[in-house]
Amino acid sequence: MPNHIELFAQRFRALSGEFHSAANSDEAARIAAGIVKDESADCVALAHLDSGLHATVRSALDTNIQVLEPPYPSNELPELLDAAQVGITAADWGIAETATLVEVCTDDSIRLVSGLPRTHVGILRASTLVHKFTDAAEPMRKALSENPSNCAISFISGPSRTGDIEMILTLGVHGPERAHAIIIEDC
Q1: Closest among 23, 10, 15, 2 to 126, alpha carbons compared
Q2: CATH code for 4-184?
Q3: Could you check whether the bond before residue 159 is cis, i.e. omega within 30 degrees of 0?
Q4: In this predicted model, what pLDDT tens digit does every residue of 12-67 receive, in sequence order?
Q5: Which of 26, 34, 162, 157 is nearest to 100 (CA)?
Q6: Domain extents in the chain
Q7: Which of 156, 151, 100 is nearest to 129 (CA)?
Q8: Is the pLDDT of residue 172 over 50?
Q9: Considering only CA atoms, which of 178, 113, 85 is closest in space to residue 103?
């Protein structure tokens, strides 16, 4: 049986996502910056990155790229984030079996940054990767109990897809058309 990272990568690719492995945060930031360059993006939105990863990603981006970053004024959302071609977020944990990035969202900007731009880059630490959905139940309960009044949990498995139009699978209709997962192999 493949390890969690191999299983996640295999399943994420099967969902039309692009998988990347990074040895550390610096390499993850370089990969994210490369994706931004490949997308010819001139505006990028960041959310839900810890301060160290935020600074590393920010410094890896070309200086001519407009970077939108928290705190986002709620009265300017979602219009403010509509300018971003790429959204970069960190997942709280991942589920290998379903190739799912899980984000605990306590503010709408997190969901907008991962769901509004045409390309989403999700960064995940390997140490937070679990095998199956039921293994994520305890962390989900904890997140919800720690944020009882304002919490949503987002599950991201590859690019947005729909198959309801003449039974033809279409990517990017209700969210990102392209999805990248970067796993930092920290364990």
Answers
A1: 23
A2: 3.40.50.10420
A3: no
A4: 999 889 999 999 999 999 999 999 999 999 999 999 999 999 999 999 999 999 99
A5: 157
A6: 4-184
A7: 100
A8: no
A9: 113
